[in-house]
Amino acid sequence: MAVKTITIELDAYERLKSFKSGPAESFSQVIRRLGPRESGATAGEILRRAEERARTGRGPSLQELDRVEDLRRKKTRSRDHWRE
Fold it and tell me: Is-contact 8 17, C-beta < 8 A?
């Protein structure tokens, strides 16, 4: 397999390192897992990633995600002031 060496700043390295699921996961695997797919991320993929991060303590809690969903459901459409 061909490889490419890249240079990143230390804060970016630490952030990337924090996304590793364990010591055996390579940075290439992390980037493939978290990076956007060629076809773009689906809503299901975004939700799955958010839930995965919540379970590992690296993102909002599952309760916070539920709260966002509740607020989204309750959201009412604002009036379109441009069409009045």
Answer: no
